[in-house]
Task: structure prediction
Amino acid sequence: MPEVASTCCYCGVGCGVLISRRDGRITGVRGDPHHPANFGKLCSKGQTLHQTVHGHGRALYPEYRKSRDKPRVRASWDETLGYVADRFADTIRRYGPDSVAFYISGQLLTEDYYAFNKLARALVGTNNIDSNSRLCMSSAVAGYKTTLGADAPPACYEDIDHADCILIAGSNTAWAHPILFRRIEAAKAKNPDLKIIVVDPRRTATAELADLHLAIQPGTDVALFLGMLNTLLWENLTDPAYIDAHTEGFDALKLVTRDYAPELAAQLCGISKDDLLTAARWFGQSKAALSLYCMGLNQSSCGTDKNAALINLHLATGQIGRPGAGPFSLTGQPNAMGGRETGSMANLLIGHRNLQDADDRAEVAKLWGVPSISGHTGKTAVEMFDAIRRGEIKAVWIACTNPAQSMPDQAAVREALTRAELVVLQETCNDTETAAYADVLLPAAGWGEKEGTVTNSERRISRVRPAVAAPEEARPDWRIACDFALELEHRLHGHTSTLFAFDSPRQIFNEYRELTRGRTTDITGLGYATLDAKGPQQWPYRMDARHGTQRLYENGVFPTATGRARFTAVHYLPVAENVDARYPLRLNTGRLRDQWHGMSRSGRVAKLWGHAPEPALMLNPADLARRNIAPGELVTVDSRRGTLTLIAEADAGIAPGQAFLPMHWGSRYLSGTGTNALTLPVIDPRSFQPELKHSAIRIDKAVLPWRLMAVGTPGDGDALALLSRAQPLLAEFEFASCTLTPDANGVLLRAASAKPPCAKTLEKIHTLFELDGNAVLRYADPRRGVTRAVRLTDGHVSGACLSGDAIGETWLREFHAQGLSVAALGSRLLAPTATAPVALAARGRIICSCHGVGETTILGVLQATTGDAGSKLAAVQEQLRCGTQCGSCLPELRKLVSASVIAA
Ligand SMILES: Nc1nc2c(c(=O)[nH]1)N[C@H]1C(S)=C(S)[C@@H](COP(=O)(O)OP(=O)(O)OC[C@H]3O[C@@H](n4cnc5c(=O)[nH]c(N)nc54)[C@H](O)[C@@H]3O)O[C@H]1N2
Ligand SMILES: Nc1nc2c(c(=O)[nH]1)N[C@H]1C(S)=C(S)[C@@H](COP(=O)(O)OP(=O)(O)OC[C@H]3O[C@@H](n4cnc5c(=O)[nH]c(N)nc54)[C@H](O)[C@@H]3O)O[C@H]1N2
Ligand code: SF4
Ligand SMILES: [Mo]
Result:
């Protein structure tokens, strides 16, 4: 059976994959050597995609409940969609079309997006349709539109090979866009003169490759870019001819830059003046300067300004529309671009049309054959959940996103979901945080099961193809939207028209294509057949074109009224929530290398747990020491909106006064409402994107003297199943986390509380971790909540549970993790000591997830080899194989190597 060519469903790099299958099951995946985004490479997440599709937690049948005090029950598609259509029709009739809303996702395919967009705007008559791209790309959209006139990234991946200066701002490319980062590494290796500047408050894996790392104070990017422009002006490094011929508004901007002399700007940013000058010079003197940017710019209350201020630099130096030059916003999700193109966000309209423009609306209405498109502004994500909470929006349809994990200010979001009269959730999984709030669960076909198209960061449209049929009753997203639309149309209008008469995603694509005719996103020359024959193509791709468009604005003409790009005279504004005496630390959030968002997929791949297995708040070691907190201790983290209890860890890459928490941890792995319990819902006034990267917090040592640690490898070998069985326990403790052990074979449950829990809870844990059999050594004093139980298999620890006031658990975990013999320990095995009774080397963090290689092992080899960085890296790769497969761990390997070279 030949492989099926499709696209990776994780990040916006949009790598091509070849899926192999047997007997109706997906059995493997490899990089598509012909795909221009990756040429055969895949990162740690992409190459384990086939492991995400099987197993527990899949939504397989429609379910609904009529009343909140009952569980959802399985029903047929007809019955379920009929019920939802009744409720929607009733709500619309009683309260008008704006009383319902659709909250969708940048992980839907373009055809899915189109169907939802048409459903909301053409049938329901509301603009209350927004997507999780609001939390992601909306500042980039607003930034491009205000400056260049259209939401279109002008550059392409190949520009990385042509640039001699790459400015990476607010992007941890090494972890979030790994295959693109491999390309940057290759460009740097080929051209050592290539200057890489990284702007990030954290010393990230990306910053390790930089020639210059500007660790600016959070939120000060605009001051930095204005300071750089001030320098460019002073040192005659701008391009007056380009400014004259192709732009407008430079004089107003020049006035503003006067206030940002390098000294002052550097002070605002908390960096040295010299570093600022160097950055400006490298950028201004380079033949081709490319900037790559992501959430560090977008997720901000001044995200649009940050984008515009960076684009100003490109316009002022003419660094755009040439090979190697341009402001290149990296998209997060695989098809956030498709959502932007189809106008599937509250304030956009299909084909880069303007929702505020009556002519544009009339044109779309005519093309769709409906009387009109509402001009009433729709609610953007944060506003939408506020309106639900206020009772203004009564019914919400959520598809392909998990707002009870990913939206800021979880207390408010969950209150909204509780108050909503109807919550419909269209998901591939039935166990996400949002699923707990859903009155209706509609099972969706997922990656490997559905067909359509996606657009990656460089405007490249790729085909998504099914390798197997969707399981049980799951249906593709576009089909669910259309099936529902037919039911709703019948109830609202008494008949069904041809509005939703689609039988295939190809038909949807062809209709959508017509709406791009003559627009900036024109793809009238493209169809599934062209894509199948010629491979992925970049838009615009006009009717008469023979190929797509690699770069935009090569002729210096921009899609504005005057044809000129617009400088934007922005000023620096501080973050919306400043630190003060009560909340003295700045909380930053973002991604881990091997996990994807709420972990509904990556969390089901055991291998992907090794790199960062436990939820932890990262702080500068000095901040921990000052508070007398040891690494690994439990802390309570408070913001003005919520509280979390977590382990604190030291990370010298975090600047003093700051903290970093991965965005992935939700209520399925951690007690409480996850990372976003703490974050701020303040939004940028023009992009409506929330400031997810900046909030003020306080940390205190957690006063929870009773502790529990249970670890175990299940007898049936299915650690992931045990993990999901243990999850309900999280709610029983003031603190608890439940994760896979770094070796991925076992489960680790940690808990803490002020007082011991009831004996029943402890019993449950013992049963789960199979600590009730004969081969278990046990000591228990249930009244005091003290237990020590160790299960031995062939003289090794295969499971253990320790609880009480002083449990000294770490060494027992090592015995479990390393499978060491406990024969020599005897009764000391049950002794509650903090240090191991025998010498024990910790295996350390897993660095290479492909080959399961830990930090300690790598350090051992590095110590034993001599030579320069190159030969040390080669030695590690040769002896341990780490960093030889997907390359995702290369930045960290290089860091360990350079530390060992320095030490030597
Ligand atoms: N492994 C993995 N990859 C992913 C994803 C994932 O979940 N996991 N998600 C995908 C998605 S949807 C997205 S949007 C992208 C996100 O990709 P990135 O934006 O690269 O990832 P983040 O870690 O969210 O944030 C990037 C950096 O912004 C920095 N930052 C914080 N505040 C500021 C600031 O004020 N100024 C500057 N200059 N930097 C700041 C943070 O320290 C962080 O290192 O990743 C995509 N790729
Ligand atoms: N604190 C903090 N919060 C953040 C961020 C941050 O940096 N910091 N980043 C924000 C950003 S940039 C983003 S993009 C969001 C992401 O936030 P979410 O959109 O909530 O992230 P996912 O977990 O990817 O949710 C996608 C859901 O769709 C399901 N799914 C997968 N495939 C399909 C399919 O084909 N059809 C359907 N119907 N469902 C499917 C998955 O099981 C999953 O539950 O998080 C945002 N939240
Ligand atoms: S870089 Fe990794 S996650 Fe992103 S598309 Fe490629 S394989 Fe998928
Ligand atoms: Mo995103």
Summary: The pocket of MGD (ligand 1) is lined by residues 11, 136, 169-172, 175-176, 199-202, 204, 218-219, 221, 294-296, 332-333, 588, 590-591, 593, 595-597, 693 (CB under 6 Å). The radius of gyration is 27 Å.
